[in-house]
Amino acid sequence: xxxxxxxxxxxxxxxxxxxxxxxxxxxxxxxxxxxxxxxxxxxxxxxxxxxxxxxxxxxxxxxxxxxxxxxxxxxxxxxxxxxxxxxxxxxxxxxxxxxxxxxxxxxxxxxxxxxxxxxxxxxxxxxxxxxxxxxxxxxxxxxxxxxxxxxxxxxxxxxxxxxxxxxxxxxxxxxxxxxxxxxxxxxxxxxxxxxxxxxxxxxxxxxxxxxxxxxxxxxxxxxxxxxxxxxxxxxxxxxxxxxxxxxxxxxxxxxxxxxxxxxxxxxxxxxxxxxxxxxxxxxxxxxxxxxxxxxxxxxxxxxxxxxxxxxxxxxxxxxxxxxxxxxx
Length: 328
Fold this sequence. Notes:
The chain has helices at 176-188, 221-230, 234-241, 253-263, 316-327; strands spanning 36-41, 44-49, 52-55, 68-75, 81-84, 99-101, 145-154, 167-171, 196-202, 211-218, 275-276. By secondary structure, the chain is α+β, with helices and mostly antiparallel strands.
């Protein structure tokens, strides 16, 4: 790893002849910050990191894929993103999108096949543009699918040193209603989404990617401190904001946000079985931190065994309200 050590001669900043510090002249401009991405294909989870893809498998020696992953959602943007594939999606594909927009307004920089300068008027962002699937009735959906970018870490290894810290998980369009309902119920009982562990699994009743969200347990004080610090990291902002192109000339942020509202429908309500109540689960420790809520420790007590006081301490009354709300 490179390190910058400045000797005493550098104290006081550059001489006036250099014109001082120009924040627009950036040595690191154009260099993307790398982060891991949680992928899903054929109801199988994987991690893409440093050019390698690793399937997430059970640690019982069976070699079977994990049925679910236990996460902490660090941060989410206040807008939807978009992805478009030239070829129809199939269950065995893990190809990157041909066109995509992190902010839902304009395509990202360097997408392989940009379809339009702005998403609002793109033909693939119109209802009824989704191609019909053989043997199925025509759909009124959009070919360019909405998704929600989430910055996440494994519940059992919040620092996630193995995969470089915060990671990207895209919530697919079919899961947006469930995610919105889940977030609303948490808010109604006073729990921030980043204050709990969440289990994400697949809805096995459908062929396309659709998530089921399950609240596992509140984070305790030590975990909460790590999470609150990570939420401030630049990498988290990079994950949820992506790499969008500049807004078109004459379009300000307020008008751009309104354009997204105009073409984005309200998410459908979650089915009751796609949002399940909080449980005080305590699975066995694992290597990846995705399979179970116990973190890796070196002989130290697991956080859920720590005294639950402080930033996001367990509150039995709130937990009772949460269970009641999610069971309604």
